[in-house]
Write a structure and sequence with these properties.
Layout: E1 2-7, H1 15-28, E2 33-38, H2 57-61, H3 70-79, E3 82-89, H4 96-109, H5 114-118, E4 122-129, H6 136-150, E5 153-161, H7 165-180
Parallel strand pairs: 1-2, 1-3, 3-4, 4-5
Helix pairs in contact: 1-7, 4-6
Length: 185
């Protein structure tokens, strides 16, 4: 079994990374191979809305004219058994790097052949708010909507505040173990 962790944070020691690492720890304890990508350090351009109608070849061919890391990330997601989308929360929303990736990914996943490859792919979202923490639930709603638009099977959305990260880390480890065991199918 293979799991991909996509982090919208550049800090490998930050709160978002610690939350994602807890999920990975749970999965790895049951033999799952994990691979982590820190999106801000990758080459991910924003959508150009190529044509006058705001689309491009993504609409007809489920591919993009931009030659960046999105192709490799999309293939990793569509080849994984489970994907973790972990993002810091800024202004009650996804991080810019996570939003940019998902904007590009969903344009491709709503059209064949990627639509059928994305359908039912298991994923989980973790939204980690640093300030007051009040934006984490709203961010989870946004993330879940985008992932469902892609056709993914969203297993859970976990809002985390800096104030409760220590409390939620053991829960995330157990969630990772559950993902490794294939639950829920």
């Amino acid at each position: 079994m293979k799991a991909i962790l996509l982090l919208g944070s550049r800090n490998p020691e930050g709160q978002t990374a610690r939350a994602a690492r807890s999920l990975a720890e749970g999965m790895e304890s049951d033999g799952v191979e994990t691979e982590t990508f820190y999106l801000p350090g990758m080459h991910i351009e924003r959508c150009r809305q190529c044509d006058s109608d705001g689309w491009g070849v993504c609409r007809q061919e489920a591919r993009c004219v931009i030659g960046d890391d999105v192709d490799d990330l999309a293939e990793a997601v569509l080849s994984a058994d489970v994907t973790v989308y972990a993002t810091p929360v800024y202004f009650g929303d996804l991080s810019e790097s996570m939003k940019t990736l998902l904007d590009r990914l969903r344009r491709r996943c709503i059209h064949e052949p990627m639509k059928s490859r994305a359908a039912g792919r298991r994923c989980i979202g973790v939204c980690v708010a640093g300030g007051s923490g009040g934006g984490a639930p709203n961010c989870c709603v946004i993330l879940e909507r985008v992932l469902q638009t892609c056709g993914f099977k969203v297993l859970d959305m976990v809002p985390v505040r800096r104030q409760n990260l220590a409390m939620k880390r053991p829960l995330l480890v157990e969630t990772g173990k559950g993902l490794a065991a294939g639950a829920p199918e």
